[in-house]
Amino acid sequence: GQQVMQIPQYQHVQEGEDFTTYCNSSTTLSNIQWYKQRPGGHPVFLIQLVKSGEVKKQKRLTFQFGEAKKNSSLHITATQTTDVGTYFCAGLDAGGTSYGKLTFGQGTILTVHP
Amino acid sequence: KAGVTQTPRYLIKTRGQQVTLSCSPISGHRSVSWYQQTPGQGLQFLFEYFSETQRNKGNFPGRFSGRQFSNSRSEMNVSTLELGDSALYLCASSPGTAHYGYTFGSGTRLTVV
Q: What is the C-alpha to C-alpha distance for residues A1 and A24, in angstroms, rounded to an integer?
């Protein structure tokens, strides 16, 4: 079955440093979504990428979807303490029968030291 | 606009019992998905319902089942509980097509003792 690998598992940064997490799928994706989960909270939708090579920005966050639609990355510039949490990528398989079936990466736990 | 509501928030059950969890999606959302979250396995897909029909199912044993009602509210049931079923169960709703993000509820924390 489809697998989504995400690295790194943990990332500790000083406030102001940049942060990047990477996702790689074993199969071609229809789209990839990114979620953030704060400690004790639930996943919150950040963005969805659909097109090959797509790049989207949200303030300090930059999301990329690979040309082959099998990998993606999230980059945060100049981290802040409010960025703390676990960042998940989640892919929808391109097979056409993946209704609602997001395959999540294991997540990257980001801690930011002030 | 109300979010996704899951009840109850916390549950403690004994091995062998059964449990029913409830999810009310965002108004107008017709798709409801269920996920199990554990520290070891992460977020794993259970099933997805759209207009009362199960469209997709994950790799969980038959003890896990669900349904969706005509008002899009959904329930999931776990029978013959095992210790390993202890997890955060999350419900997510979407309008129903592949190109929308999913809105998650706060989850039900199930502890099996």
A: 14
